[in-house]
Hints:
15 helices; two-stranded antiparallel sheet; single chain; eight-stranded parallel β-barrel; alpha/beta
Amino acid sequence: MNKPSKLKSLILQGIIFDPPFFCAPMAAITHSAFRRLIADFGGYGALFTEMLSAKMILHENPKNSPWLKRRPREGRVIYQLMVMDTVRLPEIIDRLAPLKPDGLDLNVACDAHTVRKQGGGADLFNDVDRLRRIIQVMRKSFAGPLTVKIRLGRQIPDWRNRLHERLKLFESEGIDALTIHPRFYEEKFKRSARHALYAELAAETCLPVIANGDITGLVFLRDHAEAFTPVSGIMIGRMAAACPWVFARWHNPGLIIDHEEVWNRLCNYIAEDFSPVQALIRIKIIAPYFARNFVFGHEFFKAVQSSTDMATVRERTAQFFTESPELSKDISVSGI
């Protein structure tokens, strides 16, 4: 049996992702500052940007934008795009060229109302003709790895047939790999991801499948090895937000973490990339995840959320750490 912890390198369009472990795109989290922190620990094959509005890219400075810019130490970076139509799409992709993306990922998974209303994510999944046209333009405009992130679709009687139709579309139009989050759109993060479906889904397509959803680390994969045997890669999202060292622990289970130092480093990185107002917003978004490292993490969470500026965040969290907070033995990100 091919254990997930021993997955072979994933090679897409001649680019090697080794190991085939990926940090998932997470809204308002996987910006350049957070990717910088993940990179300090290493252990992954590639990092994903957060989902980027394709048309927003036309108005961003690729060298300075905290969403677009990449640092050499980040290693491989895949840019995930929210695309609604083909208008100026080749120009958008060309604008990313100086950043030398190691891949482009089309988001067909997000079911947020604001995304669907614009025609992206789940709405694009439902519109096969528009989906096909967009992929055709992306494939023609970008020679590197082109991937798609999907869910199972809507929870309706013929969901399998609809999903099969999309899988065949991806194959025929030149997609290189699929990230599949085995939940239905309307479930958000409710109920557990259906990892047992990977055998069926992988058999449905000739494309490499990257598993995503409720994956917490190496121990989890070892405990559920059979379910993940058919996949070619592993993607971790929320647990990486809580524990940026999760990929490093794959290779070094005994890695010792100084939580206060990591938190302060993240604050520094975010303050460097964002304006004071935006920095405070970003640190408050990630605080609920980082708080899960502590038995009394709600105190950490409250200290950050009630702060009115970054200086107060630093002061209050420093006080929290002076009390040598007890660490959680089993970290869970459920409910966030």
